[in-house]
Each structure stands twice: as structure tokens, then as C-alpha cells.
Amino acid sequence: MSKKIWKLLMMLVLLSFFTTGCYYFAARNEMKTAEKLISELKGAGGATLVPYEYCSAQSFLEMANLEADQNDWKQARDFASRSKSAAEAGLSQVRRKK
Length: 98
Prior knowledge:
Elements: H1 3-43, H2 46-49, H3 51-69, H4 73-97
Helix pairs in contact: 1-3, 1-4, 3-4
């Protein structure tokens, strides 16, 4: 193999590792944030006051965990983001009701 082809292949391999790593850290951060928000929502009585948002947030977080177990970090990040949004919506509704 020529040196140009070898360098190109190495660059592609490194690029794929870097982009995969970015999804990993983004997904893990979103999942941690979603867990904290769900915990806050549960503590504020979200399970009874806003059951739809609470169940949605939990379900999306479970899906994020399943996707993370399969190393599909992009999907895990997307589901964690949805979970976070549902928990935030639930928290804002709980605060308005109190």
C-alpha cells in the first residue's frame, strides 16, 4: 500500500473514534441530567400530579439505557434528551400547581 492510502485510512479510523466518543459523552451527560430531573420530579410529587410527564420521562430514560447497552450512543442521547424535556415539562407544571 502506498503511504497516501495508509495515511487516509488512519485518518478515517481516528475520525470515527473521535465522533463515537463525542456521542458517548453527550449521551452519558444527558442521561445523568435526566436522572436528576426525574428524581426531582418524583420528590415534588410528579407521579401523582403530572403522571403523563413522569411516565414519559421514565420510559424515555429506560429506552436511553437500552440503547446505551447496545452501544448506540446517538439514539441513547436522543432518548435521554426526550426524557429530560419531559421531566422539565413536568417540573414546570408541578411548580405552577403549587
